[in-house]
Specification:
With 474 residues, this protein is of the alpha+beta class. It has 14 helices and 21 strands. Bound molecules: flavin-adenine dinucleotide.
Amino acid sequence: MSHLQITGLGGDRRDIASETLDTFAAGLGGQLLHPDDEGFAEATLLWNGMIKKRPAIVIRPQSTDDVVRTINFVRDNELEVSIRGGGHNIAGLALSDGGITLDMSPMKAVEVDVEARLARVGPGCNLGDVDRATQEHGLAAGLGFVSATGVAGLTLGGGFGYLTRRFGWTVDDLEEVEIVTADGAVQRASRTAHEDLFWALRGGGGNFGVVTEFVFRLHEVGPQVMGGLIAWPASEAEGVLDLYRKTVESAPPELTAVVLRRNAPPAPWLPESAHGTPIIVMVVCHSGDLQQAQADLAPIKSHGEPLADLIGVKDYVAQQTLLDATQPKGMHYYWKSEFLPGLSDDLFATYNAQFVDLKAPANQIVLFHIAGALSDHAEDDGAMGNREAALACVIQSMWAPESGAGDANRDWVRSAWEALKPYSTGGNYVNFQTDDETDERTVESYRDNYKRLAAIKSKYDPSNLFRVNRNIPP
Ligand SMILES: Cc1cc2nc3c(=O)[nH]c(=O)nc-3n(C[C@H](O)[C@H](O)[C@H](O)COP(=O)(O)OP(=O)(O)OC[C@H]3O[C@@H](n4cnc5c(N)ncnc54)[C@H](O)[C@@H]3O)c2cc1C
């Protein structure tokens, strides 16, 4: 009898008879894909080209019933399962190596209830799918900065973006989820049903089951905002960082400003003479009244002599794709992150010191201003916590697979991270953790909420079926 070898829960290789697989597949509305099947390559291609994992098979569910069937199958056969949303996780958590990957991308429905101001979102959606559907009604959920990112992974790890200062973490707008837990049961969790599970899902990652629907509260946003980016030569860094600090200290919640230093890409919006030279960039989004936005952004637009100023009125949906081209799929990526309580001269000096003689074409350190509505909630309102964070700091490197620059870039990121870590709140963003982060880093992401998360994991997933994630062991 023929069989397929599939990675088991303990990392062992298990023989699964073809007949057993066929019986399982026959009951699926969706697809079971083997490596040679059409669609397998697409389902296993991740944003971070550095990840080399390959599942034995991919399941593409059409419905919650398909997910239940798959979870019962992997549990009964003690097989490793991973869940793929948008495939953007830098650590490659979407894929099981040799096991089964549940690729949620076919479940892509977005249903907007304009009157109730709610969106029902399928777990296969990326941010752009949701932004486009909600903006048809002048509404938005608070999602992230790059439109190809998966809603599922972003939300389950907490989520932040241009609207965080107004509405909090993405999970602060989460009203309800439908989830298939390890026992194969379909639950609806909210603030009034399975409250403990819902609390854990608001930041605790993919540890608790397969989410088959997210329900988000929506807000009136746009459809036009004032946003874009502005770039100066890095020789002006000191003045620009000072301006950034003033902006952060005085900005209304409608204004989010991001600052980053890097070497200039060969982008058409920059003068050719600047390509490859050190620059400092501010990315802004003002989602309030447009006249007020113009006034609030005037000090930024009139500062110094920018190389390029692309700040203007644009559709919110366009603002949400502004940074897409800077994050191409398939390149190699390595990041580290910390949450920061604020800005200081010392921090800026340390920040600037990381760029002396930096030759890498795409390495950057990004500071995202996120303070505001986060602190309207108690620290233990949801697993995400980290509500004293004023900024998220992300040290990022990107290189072409064939460039051979991996070791040098990873060393640069680690060294900049060591230098900047003393300015951290002590917390870091679980969704930015790479595959070489220690378990201790995961504990640090949740801090005081970790113990409670582990207890909820024990209740809903005692055998740790959902372990291809930043794992919280039961
Ligand atoms: C270019 C880029 C930009 C980013 N920008 C932001 C940003 O602005 N704000 C922000 O907050 N984050 C941002 N992130 C981080 C992002 O939130 C994480 O990478 C997140 O994991 C991506 O989700 P995904 O669905 O694409 O990931 P995947 O790699 O598909 O999955 C990641 C994890 O989520 C779990 N998961 C996925 N779907 C489900 C499901 N249906 N049920 C249960 N678990 C599930 C998986 O188990 C896995 O552990 C960015 C990442 C990238 C690469």
